């Protein structure tokens, strides 16, 4: 079997491969979610701060699907009027994180199994395209930011700090999008990626998921350096598909 086939077909490692658990940290890279939400449109900074806070609560599971959002409470939390709160909620609605309907409070969006699967399949192809672009450019491109994020993922893995690992992972793939230097592709990835970040976070909380993830990202970084376009694309698609299978298994046990 060739190298690509081996990676795509391999079984996930044993769930005993992660280190002992510890109290989770929280290392959201400054401005990361704001960049996803703003998407180059230069929105008001307070609107982005409010939208980022709500998005973070949704992504990390503090706000569950169907949970109500109170605009008065949000205005009080950020010491502002309801106008920027309303703009932030409209932004989150457009990005698919919340639902705004007439005559009821905003609430965290819900996605059915079919919608989640469709989003992951599309994201798999988009991540693969980004990885192929990075590998094709890596000969003359500085990959040191990816080294830094890879080190952060390895440290978080060794301490079993899921939140820190997750945000380092998100930052890694965001940097890949910057290196790929395809603005239309990156905007599409950022918008779709926001909708599934909460599910990506959830899969990493499943015991045994950090080890295969950190190993495959190390292989992905090597593929970039070796300019192995086919392998980089296959690895990136495989990472997303494995995340989907893990999520489906988790949902199936509930």
UniProtKB/TrEMBL annotation:
Check the record and name the Pfam families matching this protein: FCD (PF07729), GntR (PF00392)
Reply yes or no: does the keyword DNA-binding apply: yes
Instruction: Write down the superkingdom of origin.
Output: Bacteria
Where does the HTH gntR-type domain lie?
A: 44-111
- Region Disordered: start-end pairs: 1-29
Q: Which controlled-vocabulary keywords does the entry list?
A: DNA-binding, Transcription, Transcription regulation
MF terms in GO? DNA binding; DNA-binding transcription factor activity
Protein name, as recorded: DNA-binding transcriptional regulator, GntR family
**What lineage does UniProt assign to this protein's organism?**
Bacteria, Bacillati, Actinomycetota, Actinomycetes, Mycobacteriales
């Amino acid at each position: 079997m060739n190298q690509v086939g081996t990676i795509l077909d391999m079984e996930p490692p044993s769930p005993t491969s992660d280190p002992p658990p510890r109290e989770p940290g929280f290392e959201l890279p400054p401005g990361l979610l704001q960049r996803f939400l703003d998407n180059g449109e230069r929105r008001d900074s307070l609107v982005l701060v409010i939208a980022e806070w709500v998005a973070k609560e949704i992504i990390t599971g503090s706000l569950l699907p169907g949970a109500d959002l109170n605009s008065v409470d949000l205005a009080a939390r950020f010491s502002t009027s309801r106008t920027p709160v309303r703009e932030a909620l409209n932004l989150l609605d457009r990005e698919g994180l919340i639902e705004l309907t007439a005559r009821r409070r905003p609430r965290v969006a819900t996605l059915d199994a079919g919608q989640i699967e469709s989003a992951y399949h599309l994201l798999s192809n988009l991540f693969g395209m980004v990885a192929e672009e990075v590998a094709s450019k890596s000969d003359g491109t500085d990959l040191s930011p990816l080294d830094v994020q890879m080190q952060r993922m390895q440290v978080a893995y060794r301490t079993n700090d899921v939140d820190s690992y997750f945000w380092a992972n998100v930052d890694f793939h965001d940097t890949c999008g910057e290196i790929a230097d395809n603005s239309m592709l990156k905007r599409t990835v950022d918008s779709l990626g926001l909708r599934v970040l909460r599910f990506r976070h959830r899969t990493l909380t499943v015991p045994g998921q950090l080890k295969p993830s950190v190993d495959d990202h190390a292989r992905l970084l090597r593929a970039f350096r070796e300019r192995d376009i086919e392998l980089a694309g296959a690895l990136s698609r495989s990472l997303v598909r494995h995340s989907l299978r893990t999520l489906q298994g988790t949902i199936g046990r509930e």
